[in-house]
Amino acid sequence: MAVTDSVADMLTRVRNASQARLDQVLIPASRLNIELTKILKGEGYIQKYDVSDDKKQGVIRITLKYLGPRRDPILQGLKRMSKPGLRMYVGSREIPRVQGGLGINILSTSKGIMTDHQARRQRLGGELLCQVW
């Protein structure tokens, strides 16, 4: 079965792996998924990632990050905001705060995929892809 929303599929796989306290999760590679993974790494939500080619489209191997001996997940939540059936666009002044500023929004702007902090700094709006906290 073909996945129609690769971003929602990626977020669901990462969320489920984090809740199950798995060390790694595999995600089908796409340019958008790779950019989202780079942002998650840059913001400290995941430990590391690597992209490998598997003859078809490639795979992203994400190593998840946990806290302490109880292995509490760093990623508390991931939420898809803009969906294929209902796109959500926001201006730079309308970007919502996530968990009172404790999380991040990831946007697709005219200058690429970026966090809400970067978009506000550059005064850019765009499609609100997801929220991470």
Instruction: Give the number of DSSP strands.
Output: 10
Head-to-tail CA distance between termini:
30 Å
Secondary-structure content class: alpha+beta
Please identify, by name, the CATH architecture of the largest domain. Answer: 2-Layer Sandwich
CATH class of the largest domain: Alpha Beta
Proportion of residues in extended strands: 25-35%
Provide a count of the helices: 3
Kindly give the count of domains: 2
Q: Helical content, roughly?
A: 10-25%
Unreliable runs: none
Averaged pLDDT: 95
Largest β sheet strand count, sense and barrel closure = 5 strands, antiparallel
**CATH fold assignment of the largest domain:** Ribosomal Protein S8, Chain: A, domain 1
Taking Cα atoms only, what radius of gyration do you get, to the nearest Å?
15 Å
Per the principal axes of the C-alpha atoms, what is the gross shape? globular
Question: How are helices and strands ordered from N to C?
Answer: HEHEEEEEEEEHE
